[in-house]
Structure formats: structure tokens, C-alpha cells
UniProtKB/TrEMBL annotation:
Main location: membrane
Domain Ig-like intervals: 126-224
Source taxonomy: Eukaryota, Metazoa, Ecdysozoa, Arthropoda, Hexapoda
Protein name in UniProt: Fasciclin-3 isoform X5
Source taxon at top rank: Eukaryota
Composition bias, Basic and acidic residues: 431-440
Region described as Disordered: 403-440, 458-480
Entry's transmembrane regions: 348-370
Residues spanning the signal sequence: 1-19
Keywords assigned by UniProt, alphabetized: Cell adhesion, Disulfide bond, Glycoprotein, Membrane, Repeat, Signal, Transmembrane, Transmembrane helix
An annotated GO cellular component: adherens junction
Length: 480
């Protein structure tokens, strides 16, 4: 029920809108000064007249396709019969900004519509205002909460603001962009955009350029965004840095031990070498401490000269203390007569060496394993050794069996035979101890073989074969 009422109501409303209201195109026109534009008001039926009022223009325009009384403003549309009332503005002026009103004479009454005409007006150059104040020389101590405000005055529409530090997006905390209307005389309404930025200053911020850039409708390739800049100067204690090393010094020559440090303002320096203190500009014994030499961008070259460098000098640690109004920092420098840092070149060589060594080792191990597994190559003759050490024999044989399993038994017997013969052939004089060992082994082998026979483990054929050659029984594990 209520739905039907709603649909009815909606229908009546739309009907009223189409019948009684004027359509406008566009609703808002955003233009730059000097632009040409077309504005149109429409009504569903024939209109008798078309009047248009434009802010900043003295006369009310009474327009039709037939006549054009005011230069620069002409009728725009498909004709009064088509219900169209529009205007072409040749060159928009700043003063035209505001509401354009069209009045359409229709069936004894007058209907009207409005179009917002926004004529963009380039804002003023941005201004950076410091909310935190530097000292009289224009410096901020490190750690200061730096705070600045950028204002872009009198733009239409309001300008956007973005921040940069040394041409990189600043990425600092900024306040919400604030738009303040600045109404002036007449219809000229302008806006001022304001944004604040803040962060804690570190030594890295020193000599950096903070930029506030305004982005506006009127920016063109030929008219780039406007900006304001502020160079931040920070005062800070000498910046800490890890131990430095100086290489390539010559023994017996004057050695220059130098280190580059950052500080603002200029630091005073003092070297300490194993208890000996050398202030800047002074010479103590063979040591001369130079005055810090400014390199630019808050950097100083600090140098110690050592006359007639000795080997012992290269084992010392050179302590440097740099002091300015904001604090002091200690540095350590080591020196060496070798031409290059030990890490760099050696590292590469060492890594290559290790890699090659490991690769070779792996290859050798793999070859050994493979050779053992297959019983080939040098291990083929290993049978000679089988009788020397029971351990080696035990290791070799499982593999040997694997390969010669099919005709294993006969083959095994042959092996024993040849071994036996070659053993007899070797002159016993060569190594009595060795001979003794072999003899012992034969005894134990015979004993174990006897044990196997006693067990009578169905290895009848085997025993026959072995017995036929009249040799001592072979070690049991050769074929069992
Ligand atoms: C300003 O910022 C708004 C919102 O981010 C954006 O829609 C608009 O296009 C910007 N204007 C300009 C001129 O960059
Ligand atoms: C010392 O000076 C040389 C050349 O002037 C420079 O290349 C080197 O980096 C400096 N050493 C240190 C530790 O700053
Ligand atoms: C620092 O000063 C020493 C001595 O004057 C000089 O030999 C060296 O080249 C300088 N180093 C740099 C980086 O300027």
C-alpha cells in the first residue's frame, strides 16, 4: 500500500521537475581566465525569451539566434522553439566568477536556472613561515622540533599543498590542509590554503632544502607549480662513525692518517696516541695534528701526520676527539702499511679457494665411494690385501659378492688360490713381522672355517671345491 503511494509520489515529483524546472549544462564550469565556454539552460517547450545574467557584466543579456548585441557574448543552443537558452562566452574574465542565472520566458511565466561559473585564479606564491624559531645565526640545534607553516593565499579554487625535502617527498607529519575563505569586495571570493609540517631535526637535515609546492588548477606546462623553499641549518655535535682504517702507508715515510667527520659548527680536534695528546695545529715528537679542513656540506678532513712511520706505529690505535658547542665525539683510526683492506680482495680469493677446495674434496669422496661400491679400479687389486687385514677384507667383500653373485662360489675359490700362491712367492726375508701376521691370520681363518664346517650349514659343494685344491680353507665370509 505504502509502496504504491511512494511510486505515485515519485511520479508526481519527476513530472513536476521536468515540467516546471530548467535543466542546466554544466552545473559547474571550472575555467581559467581567458577561456571560451558554452553554458546552456533548457526547458521542455518553446520559450519566448532568453535572459542571462553573468556576474561582473553590467548588462543583462537578452539573447536569441537572430541578434547579438553585446560583443563577446552570443546565443548558444538549438533555438528558442527548442526551449534552449544558452550563451557562449568568448573570453571569461576573473570578475565573471559566481552564479550565472538564466531566465526563460514561457507560457506567461518566467522560469530560471543557475550555473556555477568558477574562474580559476592563480594563487599567490606560497609562503613558508617558521613556527619554531632558529637562533640568531639561523641555526636549529639537533633534536629541535622543527615546525613550519605554508600558506598559499588567494587562489580559486583553493590550491593543494605538498612538501619536499631536497626534491624528495618529505614524508613528515603534516596537518590537515586548511582552506580559509578570503571574501573580497564584489563577487570575487578567494581561498587561502594552509598546511603545517613538523619533525625532530637530525644532523642529516642540515643544509637540506624544505619546499612547499602549491598545486593549482591554473598550473600548466608553461606555468609550473609555484613553490617556496627554506634551507634548514642544523647545529650538531660531531657525528659518530665506526672505526676507520687507513691503508697503503709506507714505512720510514711520513704517513698521512686522515678521517672525514661531520660536525656543525667547526669542531676542535685532539689526537691521543697511547697516552700522548696532540692538539690541532701542534706537533708532538713525530706526530703533527693538522687543523680540520672544511670539505663542504659540514664535512671536515681531519689529518694526523706521522714522520718516519715505524712498524710499531701500525699496531697503535689513533684516538681522535672532536668537540664543538653541541658535544664531543671520539673516533678511532687504525693504520696499515698493506695497500688494500685485508677483507676485500682476500675475501674473494678465499671464497673462490674454499669453493674450489670443497668441490675437489666432494669429487674425490664421490669417486672413492663409487670405486668402492663397484669394486673397480684400484680396489680390483684389493684382493691382495684381503689376507693382510681382516678389517679391509670385511669391508670389501659384501660389494664383491653383489657383483659376482651368480658365479660367486667358484670365483671366490680361485681368488683364494692366487692369493695363496703369491703369498708363498714373496720372500719371507722382506718383513718378518708381516709374515708372522699373515701366518697368524691364516691360522685364525682356518679356525673359523673349521667352525663353519662343524656347524654343517649345508655348504657341501663349497667345501668340496675348496678341499680339492688342497689349500687351507678360505675365510668363511668370502662366499657365505
Ligand atoms: C587537489 O587535491 C584534491 C584532493 O586530493 C584533488 O582532487 C585535486 O585534483 C587537486 N587539485 C590539483 C590542482 O592538484
Ligand atoms: C683520506 O683521504 C683520501 C684522499 O684524500 C680519501 O680517499 C680517504 O677516503 C680518506 N680517508 C678517510 C678515512 O676518510
Ligand atoms: C685531507 O688532508 C690531507 C692532508 O692535507 C690530504 O693529503 C688529503 O688528501 C685530504 N683528504 C681529503 C679527502 O681531502
Amino acid at each position: 500500500m505504502s509502496r504504491i503511494v511512494f511510486v505515485l509520489f515519485a511520479a508526481i515529483l519527476t513530472d513536476a521537475l521536468t515540467a516546471g524546472q530548467v535543466n542546466v549544462e554544466p552545473n559547474t564550469a571550472l575555467l581559467n581566465e581567458g577561456d571560451r565556454t558554452e553554458l546552456l539552460c533548457r526547458y521542455g517547450r518553446t520559450i519566448n525569451y532568453c535572459r542571462i545574467e553573468i556576474p561582473g557584466e553590467q548588462k543583462v543579456l537578452n539573447l536569441s539566434p537572430e541578434w547579438s548585441k553585446t560583443p563577446g557574448f552570443t546565443y548558444y543552443g538549438a533555438g528558442l522553439q527548442a526551449g534552449q537558452c544558452g550563451v557562449t562566452i568568448e573570453r571569461v574574465k576573473a570578475s565573471n566568477n559566481g552564479q550565472v542565472k538564466c531566465s526563460l520566458g514561457v507560457e506567461g511565466e518566467e522560469l530560471s536556472g543557475t550555473i556555477d561559473l568558477v574562474v580559476a585564479l592563480r594563487p599567490q606564491q606560497p609562503i613558508i613561515e617558521l613556527l619554531s624559531k632558529p637562533n640568531r645565526e639561523g641555526y636549529f640545534p639537533e633534536g629541535t622540533q622543527f615546525s613550519a607553516r605554508c600558506s598559499v593565499r588567494d587562489g580559486r579554487p583553493p590550491a593543494n599543498i605538498s612538501w619536499y625535502i631536497d626534491n624528495m617527498p618529505a614524508n613528515k607529519r603534516t596537518s590537515q590542509l586548511e582552506i580559509i575563505s578570503t571574501p573580497t569586495n564584489d563577487n570575487v571570493e578567494l581561498s587561502t590554503s594552509v598546511q603545517e609540517i613538523q619533525w625532530h631535526l637530525s644532523p642529516e637535515d642540515s643544509n637540506r632544502k624544505l619546499v612547499c609546492r602549491s598545486h593549482h588548477q591554473t598550473d600548466r606546462e608553461t606555468v609550473p607549480p609555484q613553490e617556496a623553499a627554506y634551507i634548514i641549518n642544523v647545529r650538531y655535535a660531531p657525528v659518530h662513525q665506526p672505526e676507520a682504517s687507513v691503508y697503503g702507508l709506507y714505512l720510514d715515510h711520513t704517513a698521512i692518517v686522515n678521517i672525514t667527520i661531520r660536525a656543525s659548527p667547526l669542531p676542535r680536534i685532539e689526537w691521543t696516541i697511547e697516552g700522548l695528546v696532540v692538539s690541532q695545529g701542534r706537533t708532538e715528537g713525530r706526530y703533527s695534528a693538522y687543523e680540520p679542513q672544511y670539505l663542504g656540506n659540514d664535512e671536515y678532513n681531519v689529518t694526523l701526520a706521522i714522520a718516519g712511520l715505524t712498524l710499531e706505529d701500525t699496531t697503535k690505535i689513533y684516538n681522535l676527539r672532536a668537540t664543538n658547542e653541541l658535544g664531543l665525539t671520539d673516533y678511532q683510526v687504525r693504520i696499515s702499511s698493506s695497500s688494500k683492506p685485508p677483507s676485500n680482495s682476500l675475501d674473494v680469493a678465499a671464497i673462490v679457494g674454499i669453493v674450489v677446495a670443497v668441490a675437489v674434496l666432494v669429487l674425490v669422496v664421490l669417486l672413492l665411494l663409487f670405486a668402492r661400491a663397484t669394486g673397480r679400479w684400484c680396489f680390483g687389486g684389493a684382493t691382495l690385501n684381503t689376507d693382510i687385514g681382516p678389517d679391509s677384507e670385511a669391508q670389501i667383500h659384501p660389494a664383491f659378492n653383489d657383483e659376482e653373485e651368480l658365479d660367486g662360489q667358484d670365483n671366490g675359490d680361485e681368488h683364494i688360490d692366487t692369493t695363496q700362491q703369491s703369498e708363498e712367492a714373496t720372500p719371507p726375508v722382506t718383513d718378518k713381522l708381516e709374515a708372522q701376521k699373515k701366518a697368524d691370520l691364516k691360522k685364525t681363518a682356518a679356525a673359523t672355517a673349521a667352525a663353519v664346517i662343524a656347524a654343517g650349514n649345508g655348504s657341501q659343494t663349497h667345501l668340496n671345491g675348496a678341499g680339492g685344491v688342497e689349500a687351507p680353507p678360505k675365510p668363511p665370509n668370502t662366499s657365505v
